[in-house]
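Onboarding guide, step 5: your first structure request.
Type a short instruction followed by the sequence, for example:

Predict the 3D structure of this protein.
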Amino acid sequence: MKSQVFFLLFLVVLLLATTQSEAFVFGLLKKLFGKRSMSDMDTMKYLYDPSLSAADLKTLQKLMEDY
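The system replies with structure tokens like these:
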């Protein structure tokens, strides 16, 4: 029973370490290549519609900021 608990704790720590190192690597790459080149603009791509005015897009972007 003790070995199972130890193994479970070891896996949890290993999982946490890999996710933190992945975030560190992504942060380092983002710092190297700049924020504009690595920014995620996919959320605003679906907003393009020729019938929408600039005011409509601005309102939608304000609504999506906190989403």
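Each response can be followed by summary notes, for example: The chain has a mean pLDDT of 76.
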